[in-house]
Amino acid sequence: MARYKVLKSVAHSFAHSFVSLMNYHRSDYVMCHLLRRARTTGCHELRVDVLGRMAGPMELLSRPVIQSVQSYCRDFGRLVTSSGAALDMISSAQLTVRLRPESKGEKQHDGQGQVTATMRIVDDRGRAYIGRESESYSCDQPR
């Protein structure tokens, strides 16, 4: 029988995985791609509608970021069901990634900064489950 209780764990796991070193595309970490884009565009928040498989703003969506978001959205249902819940129990799933590029003078790395991901899942009864994870990154120049 599907359980609502596990949705808190699903939210945490999704946020943790997205900002972790496991999220690697095109020879660099996705968070490094995002931090570089945040520095150059001035956009500091990525929003992902996981169920609708949509993300924005466009300024942050480089090819590696798009591919990563697509992969995470595609695998979300498997995470939900393997955790003991059912996808039809979820009315919305939103991931927000806040990017804080550091600016420490001329020797800074383009991909250096703090990343915080917040995953908010709302079940079909209207209850919200929130998972949050933060990581610091210090990335080399793109390869």
Write the layout of secondary structure elements.
Blueprint: H1 7-19, E1 24-25, E2 28-29, H2 30-41, E3 45-49, E4 54-56, H3 63-82, E5 90-101, E6 113-123, E7 128-137
Antiparallel strand pairs: 1-2, 3-4, 3-5, 5-6, 6-7
Keywords, separated by commas or semicolons:
3 helices; alpha+beta; two-stranded antiparallel ribbon; 143 residues; elongated; 5-stranded antiparallel beta sheet; single chain
Overall description:
This protein has 143 residues and is α+β, with helices and mostly antiparallel strands. It is built from three helices and seven strands. Strands 4-3-5-6-7 form a five-stranded antiparallel sheet. It has a two-stranded antiparallel ribbon with strand order 1-2. A hairpin with a 2-residue loop joins strand 1 and strand 2. Helix 1 runs antiparallel to helix 3. The longest helix is centred in the middle third of the chain and has 20 residues. The radius of gyration is 16 Å and the shape is elongated. The mean pLDDT is 92.
